[in-house]
Amino acid sequence: MQLLRTKLIKENGKWYQVQELDEKPNLDHIETVSGSTDEYYTYFELADTRNVRPQQRRLFFALLNDIVRWYGAPIKDFLKELFYTEFEIEHDGKSISLSDNAKSSVSDANDLLDRVIDFMFEWHVEFKEGYKMLTKNERFYLYQCCRHRVCMICGNKADIHHVDVIGAGMNRAHVDHTKRHVMALCRKHHGEIEQIGSQAFSEKYHVPVEGVKLDVGTLKKIGVQGNYGSD
Questions:
Q1: Which residues pair with 6 in a beta bridge?
Q2: Is the pLDDT reported for residue 169 higher than 60?
């Protein structure tokens, strides 16, 4: 993964992104995968190049403590090296550090945290110490619950609950779900929120009930069919 300097240019009322490359790209490869070297598609993600934040470091180690507590053995150093190594492999040998004087970016640290959280959801590790910090960024936690189809209340397998109710008779496959707020709730808690209402549900479990919006890629990955335009 390469960090590219990008410029925004406006011409004839349209905005364009221009990326500065350190070297000439492999045109043969581009033509093979895209059929043309004049126009092709790339993935885009806005990088936060600020230095890693102390809050990210505290969250990282809080999550490691949750995994250690779940596993029942003092493996924090092993876990740190495991996730650091995974990051380096994925980023072609680029190292990462969460120390105060580190040159790693906020985006780097977020990538690392995503790996830890993915691990915890995959292995059903209960969030305890880490949850106290995750709730300060509740939307991020709700997003991860949706992404992994894990109930935000009990951690069991979840359905996707639409906060913005889809009217009776509407075909969900014809709805653009990127424009609607959703939450991940198991059948039990899905039924409960519909029975007692969002406000009472929020007060009972001390959770936000506004939901989050998901991008097309995430919706497709978790199996939510809909009308996503030309995509």
A1: 19
A2: no
| d(C-alpha 65, C-alpha 76), whole Å | 7
Does the structure show a pLDDT above 50 at 222?
yes
Nearest Cα to 134, choosing from 107, 163, 114?
Answer: 114
Judge if 70 and 114 occupy the same domain: yes
Does residue 212 share a domain with residue 171?
yes
Q: How far is CA 11 from the centre of its chain?
A: 33
Handedness of CA 197, 199, 203, 205 (dihedral sign): positive
Pair 112, 105: CB distance under 8 Å: no
Instruction: Answer yes or no: do 23 and 58 share one domain.
Output: no
| Helix spans in the chain (H) | 27-34, 54-71, 76-90, 106-122, 129-134, 138-148, 187-196, 198-205, 216-221
Q: Answer yes or no: is 113 within a domain.
A: yes
8 forms bridges with which residues in the sheet?
17
Angle between helices 106-122 and 54-71 in degrees, nearest 10: 20
Joined tokens for residue 4: 């590219």
The domain tally of the chain equals 3
Q: Does the pLDDT at position 146 exceed 80? A: yes
- The CA radius of gyration of the chain, in Å to the nearest whole number, is 21
Report pTM. 0.61
Phi, psi of 150 (to 5 degrees): -115, 130
Give 175's contacts (C-beta < 8 A, 6+ positions apart): 166, 226, 227
Token pair 């390469």 is found at 2
